[in-house]
Task: structure prediction
Amino acid sequence: MASAAEQDDIQPGDAAMTVGGDRLLLLPDGPQVKPALMALIDGAERELRLLFYIFEGDRTGTEVRDALVAAARRGVDVQLAVDDFGSSGTDADFFQPLIDAGCGFCRFHPRWGRRYLLRNHQKMAIADRRIAIIGGFNIADIYFDPHHEDSFRDLGLRIEGPAADYLAVYHERLLEWINSKRASLRSLRRILSTLTQTEGATRWIFGGPSRKISPYARELRADMRRAQRLQMIMAYFAPSRRWLRLIGGIAHRGGASLITAGKSDVPLARLAAWATYGSLLRRRVHIAEYRPRALHAKLIIMDDIVYIGSGNFDMRSLYLNLEVMLRIDDAAFATRARALFERELARSQPIRPEAYARMATWFNRLTWRLSYWLFVTADFAMSRSLTSR
Result:
């Protein structure tokens, strides 16, 4: 549960900023994200396009579903897609009122077959091709209520402008693929590659299964090779040794700071992250764990470039899962994102080399390495072998 002091220090995202023709507003936690999401749905006049990994049938899920039903009844074209695995705990009956109201509803691919291990991890809501909200949050109480005993610390971004229209185009292309009986991984890769933007102050970067490297990983790698400074808030941090060397290179050139999850809904992920800390600390990377609540936010700041969206910094997000990130190249916006990073850093527990050395008993090192192997090597190798064919 969030402390009162923590809640008092959470800022409302300040004023919206204009970058490359788009108005961007940081939504620094669930209490800011939920009203923005409901306002987006309630204010839609023509169409709503939504996609979420998890959509639960709890109080928040019911509120969002009923708002979508109300939108459909006033003539708005509503299309919702959820990931079949992520939302497997939600009964089909829960979504039936949407279908009865004329909303388009689908699940991301069947849970059987060789694509079983592929996940659509994206989160997005778009109204009238004019306003969009992205981030790490799903539709469930734990993402929006900081007083929930299992609440997540998350992050969102509201976008108003041409970028929202472009995201709506992507949603349509992806929805066509999901609903196609002959959908192939090759055609999915083509969507992700051709719609990832390579120019502009705001660029949509998509991730997903690829034979070599996903657009998300490719763009991130290129920026990391040039970066002088790095600040990262990451819910799941379990990259390969190659990515760790990239972070170490930034630390050598100018400085690198990480905030990782001290509490997680996937305990194995936290243990896997600890397997990387020794190498990073030796490279003078500053690491801190966020412990007030389970961390679910994803934010990367490199010099004047900010990445925000659904992507984690683990092998699944970098190479396998469908992810959506907005890359923002703007010094003023990066300054605002760094201010948010510093607020979260003040609430986090530093992991210093001497403290790590005390923790690194032979048993803990064995546990960390086994967790890393399970979370990174085994899962990634098996999943990629199936989804890269």
User: Anything to note?
Assistant: The first strand starts at residue 17 and ends at 19. The two ends are 44 Å apart (CA to CA). The CA atoms of residues 7 and 146 lie 8 Å apart.
